[in-house]
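Give me the fold.
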Amino acid sequence: MRLRRPRSQVKSRRGFTLLETALAMIIVMVGVVAMVEAHGAMMRANAWSSQEATATYLANEIRERMRVLPRHDPVSGLSATAGPGPEANEVTVADFDDIDDYNGVSFGPGGTFEGPIDAFGRIIPDVDVMGVVRVDPQTGEPLSLQGWRQEVTVQKVDPYDFSTVRAWTATDPPSGNFAGRAADHFPLRVTVSVYFQPPLSATAEKVTEVTWIVPVR
């Protein structure tokens, strides 16, 4: 009697085809690209948020510096100068003794003065991530906050419509019970624009702008 050995049943194992492998790779790559894009967007958002906070801080430092100043020169007023800006003997920031002295002045790279400055008129230093002040390797002097510039515009505005700019020499004539308004008795509108120029960038971009009204005191 012959014994027959049962044939071993060999199960075929189907592998991945080239098309399936390519599709899997594409899906993985799309996922990786999406993750990289999301990470990049988050980093850009964080960088912009940090820049916005810095710019707002710099604008408010100028505002705080002006808070205790009169609108016009305490000696000559506005009528004597017939316009804004520092007097001939006011050549440094420490000499500025009224708000209209700051019209057209900027602090920072390419500006009228070094800067940016704080509320005390001091140059704000640049610091690294550890909070250490960066210094010029050649002079050893502290570096100012790199890439930032504050620009100030002061305008004389109508007391009943702050959006209307009046000429610096403008007055309001008397009428009825109204005694009239001298050239230096108008509100002022102050605008501080803050610009940032990133490293390796050829131009500076406006990051924020802060505007406020200085009433007649």
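DSSP finds one helix and five strands in the chain.
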